[in-house]
Amino acid sequence: MKLKIAQCVNILLLLLVTGVFWGTWFSLSRSIASIAPQTFLAIGRIMIGNLAGPMPILMPLALVSTLPVLILLYRQKLLKAFYLTLVGLALFIVALLVTLLVNVPIDGQIAKWTVETLPPDWESVRSRWEFYHVFRTFASLTGFGFILISALFSSDSNPNEEFGRSAERPQIPKDTRTIPSTKIRQRNSGGGDGCMLVVLGASGCKSGSYHRNSW
């Protein structure tokens, strides 16, 4: 149960991060070259302002939420799901590094531009931002795919492994003996008033195998 809750929280947070990258690229930035400079600056400032607050919190939180999932998967010996989640986390870390080292510094430059003060190489700077934005978008998409596949692998596992142990087979006591089908023969005990039951075909006899009963 703990694993399922951790995976649910993790997938939700990573979905939000991936959605920001995917939505920005799919709806706008893939057509960025055709946008006029004044429109580009206006949209850029709005997007930077909207994302500058929540993304520095959301993205690290989403990555940290993957750690409990990894710990629980490792403890429960779900190694396939563990390694898939680890690869997914690595791809999100790559997306985070690209964001911090490339896209965020460029955002800082764009925020200071005006139509009158555009640098001569502004188009190359814009193209560089777009290239790395595409890179981080598909890195996060691929990482999210690995996380989803990992969740499917863990859900198909033995439910007993949820508590960190494999299903145990019932143990048969060592001193238990299986007695095959037997034939019971009645034998008179030499004129007595009872008869003796003799168990034939067993692998061995214990004391008490013979019973005297009055008929």
Core attributes:
mainly alpha; 2 domains; 6 helices; disordered C terminus; 215 residues; 3 strands; three-stranded antiparallel sheet; single chain
Describe the structure.
The structure is a single chain. With 215 residues, this protein is mainly alpha-helical. It has two domains: 2-163, no CATH class; 170-215, no CATH class. Helix content is 60%, strand content 7%. It is built from six helices and three strands; from the N terminus they run ααααααβββ. The protein has helices at 2-27, 37-52, 55-64, 66-75, 79-112, 122-155, and strands spanning 183-188, 194-200, 212-214. It has a three-stranded antiparallel sheet with strand order 1-2-3, with no helix packed on it. Strand 1 and strand 2 form a beta hairpin. Helix 1 runs antiparallel to helix 3 (55-64), helix 1 crosses helix 4 (66-75) and helix 5 (79-112) packs antiparallel against helix 6. It is elongated. The two termini are 62 Å apart.
List the helices and strands and how they pair.
Blueprint: H1 2-27, H2 37-52, H3 55-64, H4 66-75, H5 79-112, H6 122-155, E1 183-188, E2 194-200, E3 212-214
Helix pairs in contact: 1-3, 1-4, 1-6, 4-5, 5-6
